[in-house]
Amino acid sequence: MKRVLKSLSAMALCLLLLLPMAACGGGGLPEENLVEDSYDNYYEIFPYSFCDSDGNGIGDLKGITEKLGYVRDLGYTGIWLTPINPTGSYHGYDVTDYKGINPKLGTMEDFEELLTAAHAKGIRVIIDLVVNHTSNNHPWFKAALAAARTGNTQDPHFDYYNFSTSPKTGYRPYGSVYAEAQFADSMPDLNLDSEGVRGELSDIIGFWMKKGVDGFRLDAVRYYYFGNAKESAEFTGWIKQEAVKHNPDAYIVGEDWSSVSEIEQFYESGADSFFCFPAQGADGYVNRVLSAAMHPVDPAPVQAADQYYNSMLSVTSMAKGHIPAPFLCNHDTARIAGVLMRDVTRIKFAYGLLSMYAGNTFTYYGDEIGMLGSANDPAKRVGMRWTDDTKAIYPPDADPKFNYYVFDSVETQLKDEDSILNYYKACNRARNAFPAIMRGEAERIPCETQGVLAVKKTYRDSSVTIVINFSSENVKVGGLSGELKQGICVSGSVSGSGSSLSMPRFSIAILA
What we know:
The strands form four sheets. This protein has an eight-stranded parallel beta sheet with strand order 10-9-8-7-3-2-1-11. The protein has 16 helices and 19 strands. Helix 8 packs parallel to helix 9 (260-267). It has helices at 10-18, 47-50, 61-66, 68-73, 108-120, 139-150, 195-211, 229-244, 260-267, 285-293, 300-318, 336-339, 344-355, 410-414, 420-433, 435-439, and strands at 41-45, 78-81, 124-129, 163-164, 171-174, 177-180, 215-218, 251-254, 273-276, 325-326, 361-364, 441-444, 452-459, 462-469, 475-478, 484-488, 495-497, 500-503, 508-511. The protein has 512 residues and is an alpha/beta fold.
């Protein structure tokens, strides 16, 4: 779905000229340009927990449709839906029907309405495509298992999975035979060399692309051919090739929870993006920079500026000319607010730093209000807190006694200019307003103020200068060019211009 670049409205342009101070937080933001091609701010939604439209205690597709206005207002231009197919679990990663909708989440008509509504708002929709494994209750596996047990090699499903008559590493017993199942016995691995399997998957990809989905998030790509990154990457490229047969702009993002070198190898497949796992979590680029910036002993801010600039280069170079996909956390990891010790300054500034990276950022629902969760997977997937009175959705085995909501609800944070939510909004709108942030290559430019990083990003015929104060003190910055277009602050506001900027602690200024 190509995007048409929207120019600033006359009213918005006047406001920018009249308000050179560029308010921080959620107010006084520039009008957005929707970036062409596959560059977006993505919002990850776990449908089971996001929004319950009918009061039955489970989130659903209609609930997501109801909240698309909220998602778009926050500046997200894409959503990723975790599995929506029929399944035997709450999480959905053991699919029993690749062309169906989980009845707990709604109907195919509900999904089609969601797609239509999302596209009308300029939001792309990608869905999880889980093809490393199926459910052990999938009809394919039932047929293949019966054939394996009887030795019926003529059965068309016989080679859909990898079987053995004796124990093997990564194989699990299913009665008299063993089948490869790297994750769990409820999720046997597909044999991706099978012509029958590839034919099925080609048909499934075409089915969803014809429905209008804009691409796929690929689960567990490094397990496609366990222990063989080269073959796994090649299969990832095959999926991309199948998708573009139906939509040349199909966006493919893969999950390879691994090292920089292996992620780089996967980018050679031709798929658009792979999640930048080195940037996320307690040991990731962003938190390391935060830890350096907030260390009480100088020259911590100087070191943080250097580290962050190097991380900008790493995120871009890792993608090998494709689209980086940095993120702070997702449904498999501890929520970022907990990682950052529930510190509002850290929570805000972390997202500000993420937002200045090139590529597509991914945000897990609820992070914009500082939700918590880390004990087990269900605890990372509890329901969104829309209002103070919203009845929480607890997936099975999520502890209802734990306080997942230490910060205010969506309703309350929307009204608070200094909230985490409105900080997220400011970051997203900056990315949408200035495509060079998403797409430009970073070039460090001289800045005499200690602990302040100045980076120029150029995309086509436009450029922006990003100025970041890593200091815990207010600072004066001079010697730069450009007018102040937006300030993004954990508190206070940026004022001035490139020749004389006043920046509060841990703030970001956008000059153009």
